[in-house]
Structures are given as structure tokens and as C-alpha cells.
Amino acid sequence: MTATSDQPRVLREHAEQAYADELAALAEVDDRPRPPSWQLSPWAVSTYVLGGDLPDGRSITPKYLGSRRLVEIAISSLATDRALLLLGVPGTAKTWLGEHLAAAISGTSGLVVQGTAGTPEESLRYGWNYARLLAEGPTRAALVPGPVMRAMESGRLVRIEELTRIPADVQDSLISILSEKSLPIPELDEEVQATQGFNVIATANNRDKGVNDLSSALRRRFNTVVLPLPDTLEQEIEIVRSRVTALGSSLQLPADLESLSEIRRVVTVMRELRGGVTEDQRTTIKSPSATLSTAEAISVMTNGLSLAAHFGDGVVRAGDVAAGLIGAVVKDPVQDRLVWQEYLETVVRNRREWQDLYRACRELG
To answer: How many CB atoms lie within 10 A of CB 139?
Structure first.
């Protein structure tokens, strides 16, 4: 069934859908060696992720703004039999990078296990169709493969999000999969052996350790790449600008960021509170309990875009971002509120060009 103009649009397309034209363009010009089952060569994957110009003049937009070497290390790891662990504080684009790597390498980013404190072992292995199990007993037809098992059988990448939030005994069910490249099915007296191209991209938060940290046995099965926060203010501004523009387009928000001024102020506030010192290095300030990552800045600006579109004149101003900014900073109603009030009075108030932001924040309490 084909989509018609009166059908609702998908809220968020998968990477391989949103960037299908770029992936196709890369495949056309990609004449370099490809590892088994890879849709693109490692060079083409890095070009897709980091952006660049193709020999035929077409351009590939960057999906990740960060260290080229880290991306190359991640891609090289996936070309071996070692799984990849993307480690970093919240908001360092671990999930974003993992999704685009899976889309470029396997052609799909949809094989995902979302880690939580309640993730069962079946999510990493397999489950059963209990109606068929009761009627037929344990048969292959009654078995319900999980994303990991499907990736092993098809030779594709599987993503495991928030690995450290998964209970330790469930985590350890990955050990034999990563070391032996096989998944035993004792109920059927057989096993699933991984085909070429299978690998795992896992993400973990190195600030909030989650429910369980990784055992040394499991950690040894991964090549770990630590994703840092953006190095410079300008780099972080560009990340926020590009993501907010893309989100605004997908949400069909009829608003414009007239300039980068509001993005610059939001990013500056978060970098200063995160680092505990003002941009000019002259004033030491307290840091709140919140992480204040790039993802938080994107959220604040997207909310401001929505406010400007639906309740303003379409131009994002200080009043549109103030509420989101306060909500991002003040997670603890006692400790964080004191930190925010002190920052507001000692830093924001004394910046002449920030008086509109100061007034907007003061009006909100």
C-alpha cells in the first residue's frame, strides 16, 4: 500500500529512510572493498557519518560532528569480530551514532534492544509463542527470535541501548554470543551460529552507571570508544542548530531561528554550568545536579521553536527558551534552584546583551 498525501507522516523516520538518497549515492560511487555483508565500504560509511563531497559532485551531509578518528576507530572495530561499546555521558550522541552506523553498514537500524532494569533475558536471546508451545511442544516454529538472534541469522548489526541498565545476569547472556558467535537453544538441542556481518553496537552511560556496571568478562568482549562532549562552543552550537532545524522540519513547525543568538546563549549557559566557570574563565560558579548535555540544549531549543510557532510570531526569542532552560537546569527543586538563582544574578544579570533573557527567567520565578 502506497502512502498518499492525506495519510499522516511518520513522526521520526529511521536513518536508512531519512537518508536513503545519500546512502544510494554512496553505494553508486563506492568501489572500495567491503567486509562480508556490509552495504558500504568502511570509507563510504565514514563519509556517510562525517559528511563529504563525492567524486560526482554530490554532497553528503554530516550526521555526527566530532572526532573523525573516533568514528574511524568505531567503524574499524565493527569490521572485526569485536563488538563496539559507545561510552559517554548523556547527550554525546551515542544512540545517534550507533543508529547511523547500523543504517550504513547493514541497511537497517531497526534491530534494537532497549536496556532497562526490567529487560528479560528473552530480549537478548529468544522467547516462545506459548500457544504453539502448549499445542506442539518446543519446536522451531514456536520459537520467537529476538533482535540479537535475527541479526545473527541475517549477518547484520544489532544495537543494545543502555547496556548498564540491564540486570547483570541478563548482561552475561551476551558473553557466549560475543565470544563463541553462537546462541545455544537447549530446548531444541541446537544452536544458531552467527553469519558473517553480524556484530553488536552497545551504548552505556559512564556518568549514571545504571542498574549494573559491566562485568570484566563482558567488558573484555567489547572495543570501547568514549564519545566526548563537544570541544568548542562553536561546534556545540552547530550540532544544536542542525538537529533543531531537522526536528523543526520533521514536526512541521512554522518557525525560524532568525539568528544563532538564542542557540548561542542556551549553549553558553549549559557549558558554563556544566564546567563550573564562565566562558571568560573569570568567575567560578556552582554546577547543578543535571548533566546539561548537548541533548538538553536541543530539547530546550526545540521547545522554544514550538512556542514561537504556536504562541508567538514565529521567531525564537528569550521568552521562548527561558522555561525550557530553567526546566533543564533545575532537576532538584532545592539544590539546583539555588545554583540557578545564583547563576542568574551573578552572571546573566551582568551581561548587558542578555537582559531580555534575565527578565524572562525572572518572570518565571
So the answer is: 14
Please list, in sequence order, all residues whose beta carbon lies within 8 angstroms of the beta carbon of residue 107, skipping any fewer than 6 positions away.
16, 23, 39, 156
Bridge partners (DSSP) listed for residue 144: 127
Query: Can you give the CATH number for the domain in which 113 is found?
Result: 3.40.50.300
Residues 204, 162: contact at Cβ < 8 Å? Answer: yes
Residue with cell 542542525: 242
Q: Is the pLDDT of residue 95 over 50?
A: yes
| Strand pairing report for 222-226 and 83-88 | parallel
CA dihedral (21, 24, 29, 35) positive or negative: positive
The answer to whether the pTM exceeds 0.85 is yes
Stretch 346-363: mean pLDDT, rounded? 93
**217 and 97 both lie in a single domain:** yes
Same domain, 29 and 177: yes
